[in-house]
Design goal:
The complex is a heterodimer of chains A (about 270) and B (about 350).
Chain A lengths: L9 E12 L2 E12 L3 E5 L6 H8 L7 E7 L5 E3 L8 H4 L1 E3 L12 H7 L10 H5 L3 H20 L15 H13 L5 E5 L7 H18 L2 E5 L3 H7 L2 E6 L2 E6 L1 H6 L1 H8 L4
Parallel strand pairs in A: 3-8, 3-9, 6-7, 7-8
Antiparallel strand pairs in A: 1-2, 1-4, 4-5, 9-10
Helix pairs in contact in A: 3-6, 5-6
Chain B lengths: L6 H6 L2 H13 L1 H6 L5 H26 L7 H18 L4 H23 L5 H20 L1 H4 L5 E2 L4 E2 L2 E2 L2 H23 L2 H11 L1 H6 L4 H27 L1 E2 L6 H14 L4 H17 L11 H15 L7 H8 L14 H5 L1
Antiparallel strand pairs in B: 1-4, 2-3
The chains are: A alpha/beta (about 270), B mainly alpha (about 350).
Chain lengths: ~270, ~350
């Protein structure tokens, strides 16, 4: 079998991924790969194992079997399973959560700055303790980057409000702005449209397309909103019971019989 | 910045200047005593309260920022106090050498507890640190050679820079160190590290997804908390000049917890105010009122319940809260929201 990672274009290669909880196989021998610059959709009925796949990629779960290989920021190919959870980000993979994970008491600006945590490579704890010039310059630079991300999503004027006091739609944008801070190669969005109204969903589609263009990145998303997925995704993988049903463009997926059965049920 | 600050606001809103002013106010106290305006006992009570503030600030880093509870603060503070007394008296080490050892030993122990803490969450961490505190407290009672048991370990006013301090000199030293601690803690927590600790408290999963090593920052939080408790312990034993094992038990650790709840999580001034409510108030106010002295414990308990139920942000946010209610602020900025001038630093 040809090694996919040999292709310059392949960013993430998932091969024979399996994970079971107790007796339940949440992901079962799943393989697909994502190319650089793609917007890739992962769809499936409730409980199909979509979020589990995300948690395996980001190392929140350690898969029982399978390979997860990623072309990192330096261009090296790394095996994600060998990394502790907190070191996945520095490879260039950043994620959002299904139920927005922000620090409610902190301002929106501070929440976004948390996304830049690993970019402060040069400042040490001592720099912080004595508030050195290096620390002040670095902080200023990051605040500017955070405000650019907030302006990009049109919420810069809210930056001093505590994140917890904002409506859900704004909180989702804050989480999105936070992902932009780490200069990611792959952004993983877990149900970005969940809880958004129709107008906000249209806005979101536009934002995702703009993020890919402006930040020169790749996006993998799990979504229930079929309209959104069909509209923006270059390629889609449909899964059910942790198994791959089909991979293809929106039109191909829509026409696929197995996908239709999974969503609509099948007559006995 | 949406609203420009005028020159006057720029000056009084400068956090460093604020800390300095607070320091100068406390430093005025011995002069007032010399003028006969306050009693000598009051100066001692306030000096001790400042010492407790330092330890409580350490617990605030742990609990307020990182969301990790510790009921062993008093044990670590006591260990540093006994170390310093032992090194300066029994081993006759110079104050500086003794200070470094007395800070290092409890801090190393604190970091080890931090390592073990990776296995505990929430209330179980409270129980584990309670056990560490009680073990230390038992050691203080039993190990006579080190602590002099119930008769108490004695220490002297220190000699620093070739200068022998007296009681007033020691009070000034406490004020200076308190203000330095305020400034350093403020600087340490206003940026990246403070945000990382906050992220860890908010959600460890999200923190890890943002590249924050929960392991590393838990150790930093425990290290900082025990270092400050140790500093407080050393200052205590050289100010009061005696350390009894009964002081360093659970009631004191609970007092530190009460300070933070009443004063305010994640607030330096809140910790200071809370410290005065818990320590100075019963000494200076309640003892003046007949029969009330015995009820100080009851009062503390009632205060904690009232604050948790009705004012969970603590006294630290009274001012901004009042301002908001009186409508002096046009935009309703939450009391805990960051001020941009703070971040720009």
């Amino acid at each position: 079998m040809a090694d996919l990672m040999k292709h310059e274009a392949t960013l993430l290669d998932i091969k024979n991924l399996s994970i079971a909880f107790g007796g339940l196989k949440a992901v079962d021998d799943l393989s697909f790969s994502i190319n650089q610059g793609e917007i890739y959709g992962l769809i499936g009925p409730n409980g199909a194992g979509k979020t589990t796949v995300f948690n395996c990629i980001t190392q929140f779960y350690k898969p029982d079997q399978g390979e997860l290989r990623f072309r990192n920021k330096k261009g090296d190919i790394v095996s994600l399973t060998s990394l502790p959870t907190y070191r996945v980000l520095e490879q260039g993979i950043v994620r959002t959560f299904q139920n927005v994970e922000l620090i409610r008491e902190l301002s929106i600006l501070d929440n976004v700055l948390i996304g830049a945590h690993i970019d402060y490579e040069k400042t040490t704890v001592l720099d912080e303790l004595f508030n050195t010039g290096r620390r002040r310059r670095e902080e200023k630079k990051q605040i500017e980057a955070a405000r650019r991300a907030l302006q990009f999503l049109g919420i810069d004027h809210y930056r001093l409000f505590p994140a917890g006091s904002q409506p859900y739609g704004i909180q989702k944008k804050v989480e999105l702005a936070r992902t932009l801070m780490s200069d990611p190669k792959l952004i993983i969005l877990d149900e970005p449209a969940a809880g958004l109204d129709e107008r906000e969903t249209v806005e979101l589609a536009d934002e995702i397309l703009r993020i890919r263009k402006e930040y020169d990145t790749t996006i993998l998303l799990v979504e229930h909103d079929m309209q959104l997925v069909m509209k923006i995704c270059d390629r889609i993988s449909a899964i059910n019971f942790g198994r791959l049903l089909a991979t293809g463009t929106a039109a191909e997926i829509r026409a696929d019989q197995k996908v239709q059965e999974a969503y609509l049920g099948v007559d006995a | 910045m949406d609203r420009q600050l005028n020159t006057f606001q720029r000056i009084y809103k400068n956090p460093y200047l604020q800390f300095l002013i607070v320091g100068v106010l406390f430093a005025l106290l011995p002069t007032l005593r010399a003028a006969g305006m306050v009693k000598a006992g009051t100066v001692t009570v306030i000096g001790t309260t400042l010492i407790y503030t330092i330890a409580a600030l350490g617990l605030n880093i742990l609990l307020g920022y990182s969301g990790l509870i510790s009921l062993g603060t008093a044990g670590f503070m006591g260990l540093a106090a006994y170390c310093s007394a032992y090194f300066t008296e029994q081993l006759a080490l110079p104050f500086w050498q003794s200070l470094i050892l007395a800070l290092l030993i409890p801090t190393v122990l604190g970091v080890i507890v931090g390592l073990l803490s990776m296995r505990f969450v929430g209330i179980y961490l409270g129980i584990a640190t309670l056990a560490v505190g009680e073990i230390l407290s038992e050691i203080f009672r039993q190990w006579d050679a080190f602590t002099r048991g119930t008769s108490g370990a004695r220490a002297k006013y220190p000699k620093i820079f070739g200068m022998q301090l007296d009681q007033t000199g020691m009070y000034y030293l406490i004020v200076i160190i308190t203000i330095i601690v305020f400034i350093l803690v403020y600087q340490l927590l206003k940026g990246r590290l403070g945000r990382a600790l906050n992220a860890m408290r908010g959600s460890e999963a999200a923190a890890m997804a943002m590249g924050i090593s929960v392991y590393k920052y838990r150790l930093i939080a425990f290290g900082a908390a025990t270092l400050l408790a140790s500093l407080a312990g050393v200052l205590y034993v050289h100010y009061i000049r005696i350390s009894y094992p009964t002081i360093w038990g659970l009631p004191l650790s609970l007092d530190f917890l009460a300070i933070i709840v009443i004063g305010g999580l994640r607030s330096i001034y809140g910790t200071l105010v809370g410290s005065f409510v818990i320590f100075a108030m019963s000494e200076l106010v309640l003892k003046q009122i007949p029969y009330m002295e015995n009820y100080s414990l009851v009062l503390k308990g009632v205060l904690i319940i009232i604050f948790i139920l009705f004012y969970p942000y603590g006294l630290a946010h009274v001012v901004s809260d009042l301002r908001m209610r009186l409508g002096r602020r046009k935009t309703k900025v939450h009391p805990l929201a960051a001020k941009e001038e703070d971040i720009d630093g």
